[in-house]
Every structure is written in C-alpha cells, then in structure tokens.
Design brief:
Blueprint lengths: L2 E5 L4 H12 L3 E6 L19 E5 L5 H11 L3 E4 L6 H6 L1 H21 L7 E7 L22 H20 L3 E6 L2 E2 L8 H13 L6 E3 L5 E2 L2 E2 H13 L6 E3 L5 E2 H11 L4 E4 L6 E4 L5 E5 L17 H7 L9 H34 L5
The structure holds NADP nicotinamide-adenine-dinucleotide phosphate (NAP) and ligand G4F.
C-alpha cells in the first residue's frame, strides 16, 4: 500500500484527489489549517475512513511541514496548497509569494531533510497562468512563460525550483501545468461557479442580477475530477517530467454564461460593448448580467488555450474521452440548482416554524 500526502486537501482538487487515491488503495494523509470556522465541507464524507488522516500544517511554516513529512514518510506528495485566486493575489501579493513560491521550496527541503529525496515523488500544482500575456496559442510545454499577476509570478518560482531540485538532486519532482478546471466543488468566487450559482439563484427567484468583469476572457475549461487522475499519472510516469493538462478547447466567459442560463431555461442575448455590455433575458427583456469594473484585474490573462498532446501521448490521458465543456457546465448548474432548492426548502421550514410557534401550534 502506498502512502500519499496531499497539501490543500480541503480544496476543490484536494478533495477529488483524496477520493481517487483512496479508491486506488492508498493510505491518504492531508494537511489542514486551523481556522475559526471549520471549513471541511469538501472532505467531510471521507472523515472516519480507516485510510484517511488529517494533520495541521501551513505552507508558510517550515516546522509544521517537516513535522508532517517526517511523521507520514510519504511515497508521494501532491502539493496542491496555494492562495489560488488570481485577483486576490493583487491584494495579498506577499502572502501569495510566501505560500505559492517559498511554500514549494519548503516542501522540497522537508523531503530532503527527512532523507526521502531518493524515494518520495512530488507533484507540484503548476498552472496555465504561467503563460499569462500569451506568446503563442495554443500553449504547450515549450511555450515561453510570461506571468501576468503576483499569483503567476509566485507559481513561476514554484515551477523553476521543482525543476532545479530535479536536476540538482535527482529528485522525482514534476509540475503539472494545469489549465482551468472546475466542478460543483469550485470556490464560489471563481467565474464559472459564480455564474452557475447565480443562474440557479436567478431561476429560483433568489437573486436579481449577476455582476461580472471581463466577459471576453477566453479559457480552456475542464472537469477537476478528470484532472486529478492526471496528477497521479504524472507521478507514475517512468521519468520525472512536466506536462500540460488541458482539453484543447477554448470558450469565453460570455459563452459560459449562455450555456449556464440555457440550462435553467433562460435564453440570453448580449448587447453593448466592454463595461456597457449586458446579458438580457430574451423572453422578458430583463437585464440579468451587467459588467462591474470591480471585477477587472490590473493585468488580465485573456487567451488561455492548452495543447495536451504530450499528456495524451505519454500518459494515455485523452480529453476527448473525458467530460465535455457542455457536460461540465450542465453538471455544475444542476448541482447549484439542487443546492439553492435545498436552501429555499430550509428557509420555508424555518418560516413555517416561526409561524407555528407564534400561533402556538407548536411549543
Ligand atoms: P482551492 O480550492 O483554492 O484550494 C486551495 C487549498 O490550499 C485549500 O485546501 C487551502 O486550505 C489550501 N491552502 C491555502 N493556503 C494555505 C497555506 N498557507 N498552507 C496550507 N494550505 C493552504 O484550489 P484548487 O482549485 O483546488 O487548486 C489546487 C492547486 O492547483 C492550487 O495550487 C492552485 O493554485 C492550482 N491550480 C488550480 C487550477 C484550477 O483551475 N483549479 C489550475 C491550475 C493550477 P483552506 O481550505 O484552509 O483555505
Ligand atoms: O475564474 P477565474 O477567477 O480563474 P483564473 O483567473 O483563470 O484562475 C484560475 O485558473 C488558473 C489556471 O489558469 C489557476 F491557476 C488559478 O488558481 C485559478 O484556479 O477567472 C477566469 C477569467 C479571468 O480572465 C477573469 O478576469 O474570468 C474573468 N472574469 C470575468 N468576470 C472573472 C469575473 N473572474 C472572476 N473570478 N470573477 C468575475 O466576476
């Protein structure tokens, strides 16, 4: 039985990866951070599993990392922990650099200090944001990097330090250059989830309007559950190498909105340009989407499109056999429709209860 350590196990990818590794017979250890509210929603269903273990550690705290690595003695480490929001990285650049750049170094050094450099394989969650102000489309492993946010600059350090440790110390450490991947577990402030949640709320009368930033931004969006399989495949490869993981398809934020609203029965028409663009309900003429400069970024990455040829050839991972763009949008919308319906039912129960208490029907 292999032992894996996942940093960032409470996140979208961490939760899917933990499930995948448990299904494949791994002993899974994950790091969590102390917080005043317990936020383990994505992994709650795994707690109590005999092969699932949690440890406190923070990527900003070397000692906590050394402690957990020396205790777990992992065969594989998946370093998924990060301040992962690009827009937030403009507000918290130093924190982002500490966690997303130096944090990677802390993991690599912990492995060396614990005498695991020859045995432990390390996956680093790298990103298509490295291509930033893109120099070619589509982007592959040889495309030059041009990071375009504090997040991307920090992740670029992570990418290079992994490569350096591979070459300097012969460590089996690799970067997965993953393009955007989404799911029903995606954080609610990333654009896809913000859209699917709003579509569900608007359809059920719980929200009036959705405010977004750049509607023309282009992304290569895949399904997170399909992508965690690749993280594992990268570490099972004969040699330590870096891989681009993407669908090879590109869509705009606007297209994502159209599909998501269509799924809840609302046909949208877009009118206007830039900050004056609006998404209008064709049937009622109501404006449902508006642009707010609050969601513009000082520098925005607008043209991401991945070429996953190498992953297909060497890892046998074929995006054509995986979740399509339309399936992804639909599954996210369906999950949010159910979530909003449950919330509404809860509200109704509470309203009824208050009424019954006031009328003395229940005591
Ligand atoms: P996510 O949902 O934001 O999860 C991030 C995880 O990192 C959470 O578990 C978070 O813990 C943890 N974390 C944050 N700061 C930490 C710290 N200082 N010490 C320890 N843990 C910390 O992100 P995701 O979408 O799953 O992405 C996983 C990784 O892939 C990230 O490194 C991200 O940058 C990278 N990536 C993501 C995508 C994508 O499209 N999803 C694409 C390319 C690369 P809390 O729950 O306590 O906050
Ligand atoms: O959903 P996003 O915030 O994701 P972004 O910036 O592409 O970053 C995600 O993917 C990266 C991989 O390329 C990861 F490394 C990173 O950790 C993260 O998971 O924004 C996507 C696009 C941007 O161009 C943004 O300007 O959507 C545009 N956008 C338009 N309106 C918006 C909004 N983004 C957000 N978050 N919120 C909006 O209202």
């Amino acid at each position: 039985m292999k032992t894996a350590l996942i940093t960032g196990i409470t996140g979208q990818d961490g939760s899917f990866l933990a499930e995948f590794l448990l299904e494949n017979g791994y002993e899974v250890h994950g790091t969590i951070r102390r917080s005043s509210v317990d936020f383990r929603e994505r992994i709650a269903h795994l707690e109590g599993h005999p092969s699932f273990h949690l440890h406190y550690a923070d990527l900003g705290d070397s000692m906590s990392i050394i402690q957990v690595v020396s205790k777990v003695l992992p065969d594989e480490i998946y370093n998924l922990a990060a301040q992962s929001h690009v827009q937030v990285s403009f507000d918290s650049p130093e924190f982002t650099a500490d966690v997303d750049a130096t944090g990677v170094l802390r993991i690599l050094e912990a492995v060396r200090l614990c005498g695991l450099a020859r045995t432990c394989r390390i996956y680093q969650a790298s990103t298509s944001e490295l291509y930033g102000k893109v120099e070619e489309v589509p982007q592959n492993e040889k495309t030059p990097f041009h990071p375009y946010s504090p997040y991307a600059v920090a992740k670029l350090y992570g990418y290079w330090i992994v490569k350096e440790y591979r070459e300097a110390y012969g460590m089996f450490c690799c970067s997965g250059i993953l393009f955007n991947h989404e799911s029903e577990r995606r954080g609610e402030t990333f654009v896809t989830r913000k859209i699917t949640l709003a579509a569900a709320r608007i359809a059920q009368g719980k929200q009036e309007k959705l405010y977004l930033g750049n509607l023309s931004s282009l992304r290569d969006w895949g399904y997170a559950k399909d992508y965690v399989e690749c993280m594992w495949l990268i570490l099972q490869n004969e040699k330590p190498e870096d891989f681009v993981i993407a669908t090879g398809e590109q869509h705009s934020v606007r297209e994502f909105c159209e599909l998501a609203f269509r799924r809840v029965g609302i046909e949208l028409r877009f009118e206007g340009k830039d900050a004056d663009e609006k998404g209008i309900d064709v049937k009622t003429g109501k404006v449902l989407i508006e642009v707010s400069p609050d969601f513009y970024r000082p520098t925005d990455v607008v043209n991401l499109w991945g070429d996953p040829t190498k992953a297909k050839r060497q890892l046998g991972w074929d995006p054509a056999q995986k979740t399509s763009f339309k399936q992804l949008v639909n599954l996210m919308v369906d999950a949010d429709m159910a979530k909003v319906a449950v919330e509404r039912a809860g509200e109704q129960v509470r309203t009824n209860l208050v009424e019954y208490l006031e009328k003395g029907i229940v005591k």
